[in-house]
Design brief:
The protein has 175 residues and is an all-alpha fold. It is built from 9 helices and no strands. The chain has one domain.
Length: 175
């Protein structure tokens, strides 16, 4: 197992924790609709998940109708695959979970971008004020990107170690 296997867990774990917090905030908001803190958290902090849910439900509502779809069908399998890879020392499972967590974060950010018209139409898009949701998106992107890079670097290291002896065996000695 590579030395940095625990760094590969950061991406899937961050995605799962963020999804769990977003779903918990949405569930708590449904239970207590008059709470200002829950409204603020749901509208500002977890806006990327709300927007991605809107985009996903628009396209997938005829095919998939699962309550808590993002956490049950995406976040939990990513975390379980990464945990399986870590505990049973399976490099491929860990690398797969870290790569898919980066792919999911990229998909969520793309869906949030598509659904937010103010991002696309404003002349000073780069000059807009960062919100808490943008900070959460940056944190998720950074964690999943770190996990992805460590995963790919460990695979390159394993390939280099595996193939380093073969050219010397195949070539004749020049002495």
């Amino acid at each position: 197992m590579p030395r940095h296997a625990k760094l590969q867990m950061i991406g899937p774990a961050a995605v799962f924790v963020a999804l769990l917090a977003a779903e918990s905030a949405a569930h708590a908001l449904a239970a207590y609709p008059s709470s200002r803190a829950l409204w603020s958290a749901n509208l500002q902090l977890f806006c990327i998940f709300r927007r991605s849910h809107d985009v996903f439900s628009t396209y997938a509502s005829t095919y998939v109708d699962v309550a808590y779809f993002q956490i049950v069908c995406i976040g939990l399998p990513l975390l379980l695959t990464a945990a399986y890879g870590t505990f049973f020392r399976r490099r491929f499972a860990l690398a797969l979970a870290s790569t898919l967590s980066f792919g999911y974060v990229a998909l969520v950010l793309s869906a949030a971008y598509v659904s937010d018209a103010s991002l696309r139409h404003g002349p000073f898009v780069a000059a807009r004020v960062l919100s808490l949701g943008d900070c959460l998106a940056a944190l998720l992107l950074g964690a999943s990107l770190l996990s992805l890079i460590v995963s790919h670097m460990s695979y390159l290291q394993a390939c280099r170690n595996e193939w380093s002896w073969r050219p010397t065996v195949l070539l004749p000695r020049l002495s």
